[in-house]
Amino acid sequence: MRKILQTILTIIIYFLSVSTILGQWKGKITGTVKMDGDKSVSAASVELLKAVDSGLVKATASDNNGNFQFDNLNAEKYLLRITAVGFNEYISNPIDINAKENNLNLENLVLKKSDPKQLKEVKLTTRKPLIEQKMDKTVVNVDASISNAGSTVMEVLEKSPGVIVDKDGNVSLKGKQGVVIMIDGKPTYLNSNDLANYLRSLPASAIEQLEIMTNPPAKYDAAGNSGVINIRTKKNRAMGFNGSISANYAQGKYWRTNESINLNYRIKKFNFFANYTYSRWSGFQNIYVKRNFFSTGSKNVETIFEQQSYIKLKYPGHTYKVGADYFLSSKTTIGVVVNGNIENGDEPGNNTSYIQNGMGEVNTVVVATNSHKQVYKNLGTNFNIKHRFDSTGKELSADFDYVNYNITGHQHFQNEFFNPAGDKIREDEILKGYLPSRITIYSAKSDYTHPLGKSAKLEAGVKASFVKTDNDAQYYLYQDNDWLVDTTRTNHFVYNENIFAGYLNFSRQLGKWSVQAGLRVEHTDAKGKQYINDSSFTRNYTSMFPTAYVSYTLNDKNQFGFSFGRRIERPSYQDLNPFRYFLDPYTFEEGNPFLKPQFSYNVELSHTYRGVLTTTLNYTKTVDMIAETLNQIDKDTITYVTKQNLATAQNLGAAISFSAPVNKWFTTTLYTNIFYATYSGTIQGSPLHVSGIVGTFNMNNQFDLGKGWTGEVSGWARSNGIEGQFYIKAMGQLDLGVQKSILKKQGSLKFSVTDVFYTNQFKGSVNFNNIDVLVKQNHDSRAVRFTFTYRFGKSTSSARQRSTGAEDEQSRVKHGS
After folding, report:
1. What are the extents of the domains in the chain?
2. Which one, 30, 57, 299, 439, has least CB within 10 Å?
3. How far is CA 807 from the centre of its chain?
4. Tens of pLDDT, residues 245-282
């Protein structure tokens, strides 16, 4: 640790010395908001917009003297929009920030109480683009797409640029697995299955933006092999009372609905907010699996195993969030947020297995009736404080989090065994499981920002998190009219993990150059204990994670970028648990206590033309990659899934993104990513080396049809390709939608059809060593949706988004089915 502290101190001294040498201008706008009679207006909402498209750049509120300030502005033309309760909206003429005029003081911006008189010189369109490209992230504005209305967050992710969602709901980014999902800067702490279920139940109407970061800065947790996707929920801080209500009905094979309400009340010193959603998500999974089992030491098929499963999915749930901000002064704000989720999942299913000899003749038919019910409760509390020392941007913030998950699962399996004639050949096998799980997380972090002159900034921070997971699996077999403990399946696993982190991040504007460099250090102490066989393991390691960004603006048409970063992906808590989780008598999942964290190195080059066309080249090398592997026990006709560390995975890709208006009534957003992936390692003593090219494509086309009508054609596609052991066939989806603005533009009606041609269907195979498996799966992806939304009160974009401290830990909790 001493060497680490010396390294950090050296970097601080270096950055401080560099900042005294380098200097370059950045624009600044200050002003004073007044009313007739020269009296200042406090707490007015002041927004800085791009003149070219009215896109929001920054937002603030005027202080007690009516003053406001925007710093670190690039050379560009801007607009000011000012709103306050009781006054007409004020929109400025274009403001030009350039090398000669880069420090503007607008002393008298007068708001009038008379009837509004909009400036005719400026026609303001506040509609945000669907996709925004920024230096360190891609932003998806959820409401900008009609087909997102009535959707779930999972469905929005599926359509987002570079994002791939597999058949089980696992998310990858640009062909790379290991994405950390955050909500308002806070990790979800859920395992992949539970996270998928949660995102399926979370309505898109509650979401403001998705922030997709392939190489996050040092202030973010280092977790996430391929990056971070931050889901920002809606929150308004406009003065007075405002809010929105939304209702959605969708009909596929099964119906689903969600209703939500968002409320906000702002007075001078306080801001209160609350939102609530009730959702009932229903669907199905139709799964076909064919497995060939070979004779020992040969490739002669001895047994063929065909399964047809149908599972109905029902997830009624409640999601809520309440909080308050108290403005101690114009410089200090404290806040508290309480959020939670209650979900009652039910997955009844039927499974028919045909066990055949090598010639394809059926010997045994197994009919399984399965039930999996789960009660999922999550409660999180966050306390935060932020202090701005002066108008230069110097600020200190702190977050304290407590998060608790209680997950109670009940399983019931009944297996009946028949011969081909339909006669029972043995007693039924009846198994039940009681699976309580509890996860407790404490987290604290603090971040400090210190400007170094007008064009440089130093950021530093620390974080500590303490996580305990307690998983109990109690299985019972029904024999001789009694329930007996099944010792082969029963287990109890407790895992404790403490992570301590610190970071430094330096950024600098040097004329046409922008540079950013950071270093994050994380120390991990972990211990796992399995009580049934009294075994345990410990992990202690310290890792360093450098990041670097360089951006060069050649002219007003061309901008180039470079980024580098090192990341870590720790095993999820449940993946370290060695007990077996049975899906049916012949299939189970098993944890691996010997899993090590994987480390990745990410490099990216980019070019942006006219702000609308971005081309990216990216390369990632992952060491000790954590991969889901399929394994077979031939003699018992059993297949099981576990996680293993492969030696190396490499990904080389190119992406092109285009987003721009084609004409006054047609705007298009197109994204394509092509990558070459290789996986090398050893699975069960056998060498694995596979490689292949995969292509993905996303599109969104918006049409202004006039008289308040808009239309949309959107979709995504993925080519044939590989993913670890799996070879996956091409798949995709096309969506159509139309929207009508009503009630004086305060409301809207939306109608959409998703997966019009029902092409979002999975088909994959594994042919490796003694494993020969074919999987086909489809779900309730084609649906008709109707959505009504109504907004009331005053609404602006100036939200105080809270990024809490519990960020990486939540993403590693499995919310499993």
Report:
1. 26-111, 131-189+230-812
2. 299
3. 11
4. 989 999 999 999 989 898 989 888 899 999 898 999 89
